[in-house]
């Protein structure tokens, strides 16, 4: 994207959020930019308006090296080690000669946060753009991370799902823990019962939550959006959130035989999260605990939608939904202003074992391959902050997956099916320089 295009986008954004000034006489003295302290030190008034703007962003570099025990091809012919929306999608770390054992990724982010007070409440627009280039594609990738409007309790646009609570410590370098961490298009309203207690109801685009083993071939048209709700309590001791989601499973296969089906089922997800502030241990110390369960909506538990699926079709019975649950914990301790450590662990259990096209006739199965599996993720990192908004992080991420290996059963974790496992370990260095406004 050229600098002229970027400037043009910024101009359009500002024009859409600024309150136009009343026409007056020709300007005389220079109208200097004024600080807008109402929303924070990073905000300033757009000249000639009552709109406050903060411009922020970061530049981040990741370098990583590691290996897996067997390579991704041993797990359902699909990538075991990458997230489908990750910047590292494509060539992956592995054990064979065709796999990478070292990767790099560079990302730049630019955000605009514009706020205007009105007689009906605060009007806010926020946009965040990402540019990245790495070993996976070796091409610059551009994405809209967030773009939403807020007015009172209303949020409309692309934002973090209101199901999400703990999403890890920044973006994962390679192995994402089992947490729900999804940007999606949504229309939500948050009810504030007090400064400490809120509740949100959100209508969210279900296509961003589809888990179809990397293909939409077996999921039919999107009919009903996801419905997400949460209740959050934020107090001095910490934070609590309970969340729930509805997700429709709508298969592409159908049968004309009487009594078959149904070919649409309701999927659900539930979760609860706790965060404890622990200033007695260190400044900024926090402990996170989270649990999630889902049936036919596995993305809400942190399952990778690229090699996992919500359901499979069976010609004489209808949809067969998967059931997943996950537990996640995280701890941050600051030794001082400059030094800190992060610890992360998650456990994922997935059931609903099915192998596509291993039956024919009345028992035919249509849909992505899916295996019963358990997944353990561990992560640890050491932070050094030699200057404000400048971070150097050194850490490691470990993953172990155990899964069924036979391909001729349609059962829940069959006891007579052999099991296998893969391990992966990645070490990394991350360098981040932030500037300007705070995160959204």
UniProtKB/TrEMBL annotation:
GO terms for cellular component: cell outer membrane; pore complex. One of its GO terms (molecular function) is porin activity. Keywords: Cell outer membrane, Ion transport, Membrane, Porin, Signal, Transmembrane, Transmembrane beta strand, Transport. It is found in: Cell outer membrane. The keyword Transmembrane applies. Residues 1-23 form the signal peptide. It is a multi-pass membrane protein. GO terms for biological process: monoatomic ion transport. Consists of 16-stranded beta-barrel sheets, with large surface-exposed loops, that form a transmembrane pore at the center of each barrel. The pore is partially ocluded by a peptide loop that folds into the pore lumen. Forms passive diffusion pores that allow small molecular weight hydrophilic materials across the outer membrane. Belongs to the alphaproteobacteria porin family. This is Porin. It comes from Methyloraptor flagellatus. The lineage of its organism: Bacteria, Pseudomonadati, Pseudomonadota, Alphaproteobacteria, Hyphomicrobiales.
